[in-house]
């Protein structure tokens, strides 16, 4: 995990630089300054940290529950071998490491980089929208993980899917699995968060970062299938959640800042505002 942490830190710095063409470390200074000067942002950030911690300890809560439902057979009966066919068609020793990198490193880096980019752009609407949307994504997903468990595709033998993650990250089950349960599939948070970051990027007025988040979302969503992790059903639910979270996040942010800090609000005016 140390290697992943280092790679993620480098990726965050690179994403912020590519998204702003400014000193990425200045974003850290502006972020800390915002935390110290805005109670509203401090409270929102605290709630976001709490919901992320709740997701981390969701597995402990799940273990303490006397609930043993498994909806995997039902999902498989609906979509059959879709994931297997896709994996077999695209399987390549070149594609696998790229998919793992985007699934493990870029995904989490985008969460941090998005806040950094919008802070650097002094785009308070999208800083708050990002935090709110992340909270909503996890707040909706966690109850499903507790009460609607669906196992990852590769772990369901009739699917015939291989877990290609292990080809590049052989210690995945020991190092990464404690952060994400085997039956935490529906909805796909990798999809919902990626779609959220994409919509926010496209609507932020920062075209460069919009392109970055769009490319990342496409590759990450492809990776959830290619690596044999998520079902098509998970992706559809995640896409719906991501669209709702991003648009509600923008609405919440604009209302919360209406009439306040007006000079600091960045109002994008591009054709993607109504995505």
From TrEMBL:
It comes from Paenibacillus chibensis. SUPFAM superfamilies: Acid phosphatase/Vanadium-dependent haloperoxidase. The chain crosses the membrane at residues 6-21, 41-57, 94-119, 126-148, 181-202, 209-229, 235-253. Pfam families: PAP2. Gene3D superfamilies: Phosphatidic acid phosphatase type 2/haloperoxidase. Residues 175-254 form the Phosphatidic acid phosphatase type 2/haloperoxidase domain. Keywords: Membrane, Transmembrane, Transmembrane helix. This is Phosphatase PAP2 family protein. InterPro entries: PAP2/HPO, PAP2/HPO_sf.
């Amino acid at each position: 995990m140390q290697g992943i942490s280092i790679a993620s830190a480098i990726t965050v710095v690179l994403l912020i630089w590519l998204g702003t063409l400014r000193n990425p470390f200045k974003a850290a200074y502006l972020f800390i300054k915002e935390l110290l000067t805005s109670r509203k942002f401090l409270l929102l950030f605290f709630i976001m940290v709490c919901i992320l911690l709740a997701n981390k300890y969701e597995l402990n809560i799940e273990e303490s529950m006397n609930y043993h439902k498994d909806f995997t057979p039902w999902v498989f009966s609906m979509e059959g071998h879709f994931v297997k066919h896709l994996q077999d068609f695209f399987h390549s020793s070149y594609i696998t490491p790229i998919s793992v990198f985007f699934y493990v490193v870029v995904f989490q880096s985008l969460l941090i980089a998005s806040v950094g980019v919008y802070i650097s752009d002094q785009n308070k609407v999208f800083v708050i929208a990002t935090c709110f949307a992340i909270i909503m994504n996890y707040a909706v997903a966690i109850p499903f993980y507790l009460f609607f468990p669906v196992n990852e595709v590769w772990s369901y033998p009739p699917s015939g899917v291989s877990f290609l993650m292990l080809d590049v990250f052989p210690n995945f089950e020991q190092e990464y699995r404690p952060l994400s349960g085997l039956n935490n599939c529906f909805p796909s948070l990798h999809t919902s968060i990626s779609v959220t970051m994409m919509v926010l990027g496209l609507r932020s007025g920062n075209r460069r970062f919009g392109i970055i988040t769009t490319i990342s979302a496409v590759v990450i969503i492809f990776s959830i299938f290619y690596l044999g992790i998520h079902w098509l059903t998970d992706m559809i639910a995640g896409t719906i959640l991501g669209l709702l979270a991003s648009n509600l996040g923008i609405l919440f942010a604009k209302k919360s800042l209406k009439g306040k800090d007006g000079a600091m609000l960045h109002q994008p005016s591009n054709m993607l505002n109504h995505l």
